Amino acid sequence: MTSKRLCFEPGHKPKCLVIVDDTAEWDRAVYYASRWAIRAGGGVVMLRIIEPEQQSQEWLGVADIMRAEAQEAAEAALDRAAGRANGIAAITPERVIREGAPMEQLLAVIDEDPDIAMLVLAANPGAEGPGPLVSLLTHALGAFPVPVTIISGALSDQSVDSLS
């Protein structure tokens, strides 16, 4: 169950949620969300989801090392994305790292922050398809708790500027 959106109520400000993943097009989503934040007087929340590895009892020590490495990689990815957002819009985005199934974690973050007004994703422009998260979301869009904006990964900064 999703909580009521409060993003335009007094004392709140709208936020744009962006997924920072390992795809080449994450930058387009960050760029659009940062530009949107300037115009809307809002903020940006950057989410990095770490998918847990299957682990057996005898490999728990290795799993702990892998989890620490994944956490470190997530922090580095969010550092790059936050630097990009700051360079675009002089903003300091909120950073969230979650571990678990992507759709479950995405919905949980939206549910926990009533100021999230939209989700911005970027689609891969290549022949291999739009990307795993965009593909996954297409099945849930009719019941999704916030509007979803999908930006083409082929758009230039200037094109995004004219759209945001």
From TrEMBL:
InterPro entries for this protein: Rossmann-like_a/b/a_fold (IPR014729), UspA (IPR006016)
Domain UspA, chain residue ranges per copy: 15-151
Superkingdom to which the source organism belongs: Bacteria
Protein name according to UniProt: Universal stress protein
